[in-house]
Amino acid sequence: MPSAATVNPAAPRNTRGYTAIVLAGKRPGIDPVAAAHGQTYKALVEIDGIPMLTRVVKALSQSAQINDIVIVHAEDLGPIENIPGLSDAFSDKTYSSSAAQSTISDSVLTAMESQPSAHRFLVTTSDHALLTAEMVDDFLNEAETHSGINIAFVDKAVIEAAHPGMRRTYLRFKDAEISGANLFAINGSEGRNAVSFFQRIEQNRKRPWKMISQFGVLNLIGFALHLFTLVTAFRRVSKRLNCSVRPVMLSHANAAVDVDKLSDLETVKSIIEDGKYTARRDEKS
Predict the structure, then answer these.
(1) 90-140 pLDDT tens trace
(2) CB atoms within 10 A of CB 31
């Protein structure tokens, strides 16, 4: 795995900035999006000639709140410097690689441990093909004053207003329906503790009774029956984790659009073609 490389070390550094962790590995088995495009890894699938990983890194690099970028990937992805456009996308950010582990939480923890001087992390995925610096900035502006874990969501009404009829997976609460936006801010040691908790959850994924016990039966019943409001649900989760876990609602409909399936890839291409996506700060829809 490549060692850390520095680009423009004299560039100004935000003393309260974040280290971005980009998950560019894959789940066990064949990824259908990657396979349909002759790739092993979805991160390398191109949209308009640009790999999805390059698109994500470019958006992160345009945010003044991001200091460093860590790419989490398996060794057979090859040197990240060989991915088309990626070296230029890093701009003036420092970057490094971290070895993908058997679970997502293990991968995140390994990447965090590779940056011992960092205390704030932004975690996202390489299939967040519509990510923009504005999304990153809006999310981190809300997250930076709150320790623990902040998770980005988009309300169903926001998504449907921008993309009528779009099919998304929603979390239902007593007072809201929301979709995840694949952006997680981890602030301080409290956030690290919560990641360790989810590490235990993943380790017990083949023993459902033990996994359920981590959250408590009453909490799971409440979630399943939509008995809790959004605020109440996250308050209960925070108490269980002994860590503040806070939802951050974004006004960007595209933040909830990632590429899990081939149909998602077509959706992303349509959004770009229809002019409903702005890649750079100086472009207009």
Answers:
(1) 998 999 999 999 888 889 999 999 999 888 999 999 999 999 999 999 999
(2) 19
**pLDDT at residue 232 in the model:** 93
Which amino acid, one-letter code, is at 135? M
Query: Alpha helices, DSSP H only, in 114-152?
Result: 133-143
What are 145's two structure tokens?
């004053």
The structure tokens listed for 172 are 């239902």
Beta strands in 24-169 (DSSP E): 46-47, 50-51, 66-73, 94-99, 120-125, 148-155
- How many other CB atoms are found less than 10 A from the CB of residue 155? 19
Q: Which residues of the chain have pLDDT under 70?
A: 1-15, 200-215, 276-285
**Of all residues in the chain, what percent are helix, strand and coil, respectively (each to 5)?**
40, 20, 40
Class of the CATH-defined domain 18-273: alpha beta
CB atoms within 10 A of CB 117: 6
Strands 50-51 and 46-47 turn out to be antiparallel
Write down the number of H helices and E strands in the chain: 11, 10
C-alpha 113/C-alpha 133 separation (Å) is 25
| Separation in Å, CA 22 to CA 162, 164, 180 | 26, 30, 16
Domain positions in the chain are: 18-273
Q: Which residue has the tokens 């088995």?
A: 29
The predicted-structure confidence for 245-274, as pLDDT tens digits, reads as follows 999 999 999 999 999 999 999 999 999 987
pTM: 0.88
- Give the chain's end-to-end CA distance (angstroms, integer): 39
